[in-house]
Amino acid sequence: MPWIQLRIHSSSEHAEALSDLLLEEGSVSITFEDGKDTPIFEPKLGETPLWADTVVVALFDAGTDLTPTVEMLKQQPFLEGKLNYKIEQIEDKDWVREWMDSFHPIQFGKRLWICPSWREIPEPEAVNVILDPGLAFGTGTHPTTALCLEWLDGLELQGKQLVDFGCGSGILAVAGLKLGATNAIGIDIDYQAIDASRDNAKRNGVDDKLSLYLPEDQPKDIQADVLVANILAGPLRELAPLIAELVRPGGKLALSGLLQEQAEEIREFYAQWFEMDEAVHKEDWSRLTGVRK
User: In which residues is S-adenosyl-L-methionine bound (predicted)?
Assistant: First the structure.
């Protein structure tokens, strides 16, 4: 069915109040968007911050007369009589098909492809990981995930045990197994990530080689040949001693989820346990690698 969309330029201070008012007026959904391309890379735990310039997008049935709604909003004291808005007709589309069409197979390194299940595999003889985008977990499209996949593709993984620390979708563990790792362990604090990793391992026929744990349940004697942690700078620093303990002497490490300006600090911190390489960058993000002393 067709829709009508009301876009209001607002602020982090007033976005929630506008959302409540628009829902009372009959909006079927509210979306907050970044108004000036100022991404929030690493919010504090438990926080869901908004952008200083936030666009509030409200969706209504196409037959809705928005004139009374606009007039009501103009009378709100916190807006001081100023309302920067735009009303748009939204074309009736097959939105599921639109979303699916935006994902394509992507190659990482020389051997590895990540392929949505509904797309034809471009190179059947390559190492193909079938992974459907879903939830908020890695699909390979983000630079941090791409950096890790490219690193894994360049390793000799036969006979190795891999740990995917903060496994999310399980993309790195599954890719490592399909690239030749003997077995893999995925660890994540989110039970939904555990479920997503298990499902993706089954889809790729490697579920018998992947063990998944919440942190409180993980074995105490893990000694990984290869460990990859694609999380964020704060947790990487906080959990560094634990991560180091999971890697055997001579084992390889990759860290990602780092902004370029954070990389050197984390590199120097991990040098306590690892012989660290120079950072590798993609867009605003970095990857660090090293070998356990």
Answer: 145, 166, 188, 230
